[in-house]
Amino acid sequence: SYGLTQPASVSVSPGQTARITCSGDALSKQYVYWYQQRPGQAPVLVIYKDRERPSGIPERFSGSSSGTTVTLTISGVQAEDEADYYCQSSDNSSPYRFGGGTKLTVL
Amino acid sequence: EVQLLESGGGFVQPGGSLRVSCAVSGFTFSSHAMSWVRQAPGKGLEWVAGISGSGSSTYYVDSVKGRFTISRDNSKNTLYLQVNSLRGEDTAVYYCARDKLPVVGDAFDIWGQGTVVTVSS
């Protein structure tokens, strides 16, 4: 199947490390991109091509890939990181496919 | 400054039509593929339609094929989405998004603030 699966929610305390996964059969062959969406705002690209960080994105955001699962890691989580996070990739049937999104809660 | 500014959203009855626009500035418009991405209330992101930088290739999610048409005018730096035969499930915030490349399928590196389309009787 071509779907991208993310956990619905992840909770961490400030200063801890948050890991958000994205799984899909196509991910072993395609790059993954990650977006942060704060409430009431447009999405912002935080990771591209699995692990590259756009300019202006803090170093605490990183990405990794293993087989059909990719992971967004946020080290030293801050209150401002509380947001929805979406993975995105492409496959044979669509140039863009989003995961269902993960709500990150900072306790 | 790179900017994407959507307009044209509104309230429309089921079966109705609307055209939403996205005016861009601050970059070479024709060097980037563009897309419309929507978000229904309380739901996740859904890619709806994409177009190459030249405008020669267009792509749609299955649920809007035959009802929505994406187009662009590179001389006016504007992206369009004509939406016809609207249904309740089309109610969403519609975002204009820039692809990093002139062909579809890479990352969306710039997003507009969105325009709201509400379909209801």
Describe the 3D structure:
The complex is a heterodimer of chains A (107) and B (121). Helix content of chain A is 0%, strand content 47%. In chain A, strands 1, 3, 4, 7, 8 and 9 form a 6-stranded mixed β-sheet that branches. Chain A is globular, with a radius of gyration of 13 Å. Chain A has no helices and 9 strands. With 121 residues, chain B is mostly beta strands. Chain B contains no helices and 11 strands. In chain B, the strands form 2 sheets. In chain B, strands 2, 4, 5, 6, 9, 10 and 11 form a 7-stranded mixed β-sheet that branches. In chain B, strands 1-3-8-7 form a 4-stranded antiparallel β-sheet, with no helix packed on it. In chain B, a hairpin with a 4-residue loop joins strand 7 (68-73) and strand 8 (78-83).
Which terms summarize this structure?
heterodimer, A: 107 residues, mainly beta, three-stranded antiparallel sheet, globular, B: 121 residues, seven-stranded mixed sheet
- Estimate the strand proportion of chain B: over 45%
Counted beta strands of chain A:
9
- Largest sheet entry of chain B: 7 strands, mixed
Please summarize the sheet with the most strands of chain A. Answer: 6 strands, mixed
Most extensive contact: A-B, 23 and 21 residues
Mean pLDDT figure of chain B: 97
